[in-house]
Design a protein that fits this description.
Oligomer: single chain
Shape: extended
Strand content: under 5%
Radius of gyration: 19 Å
Number of domains: 2
């Protein structure tokens, strides 16, 4: 089970806890084991690549892939197309950038109404990202000169 998007680590935990409950909180037999991962800072194309090219080959008993997309906007065709277009390499889909931007915008909207300490932590994270980008720009400029 691979979770992507806002709150995806909670989905990951929920599946883990449900699997434990089904097995009476004891040792889970290999045939009933569920591998879970969450991907909150990755593009949807990267997640589909991981599912199709990395996880699936190590799960020989998997017969079907189920994509459960929980959203207010139906986008079945888009999701299936993204999954089907993963071949030997990662597919960079421009809509991934829109998804990442929307997710970031949502975090900023939440931060605006949050406690001061949370806003300071977010500002500090952005500052570190800004410094990293400046350093990377400098390194690239140095290497190209």
């Amino acid at each position: 089970m691979m979770a992507h998007g806002e709150g995806c680590s909670l989905w990951d935990d929920s599946v883990d806890w449900a699997n434990l409950a089904v097995n009476d909180y004891g040792k889970i037999p290999d045939e009933k084991s569920v591998m879970t991962t969450w991907h909150d800072n990755e593009s949807l194309s990267d997640v589909f690549y991981f599912a199709k090219m990395c996880a699936l080959p190590f799960s020989p008993n998997t017969k079907n892939i189920i994509i459960l997309d929980i959203t207010n906007n139906p986008r079945e065709a888009i999701m299936l197309s993204k999954y089907e277009h993963v071949k030997d390499g990662r597919i960079v889909d421009k809509t991934d950038y829109i998804d990442l931007f929307t997710s970031s915008l949502s975090k900023f909207e939440k931060a605006a109404s949050s406690k001061l300490s949370e806003r300071i932590a977010l500002a500090f994270s952005l500052f570190k990202l800004f410094i990293f980008c400046i350093a990377l720009y400098g390194i690239i400029g140095f290497l190209l000169s």
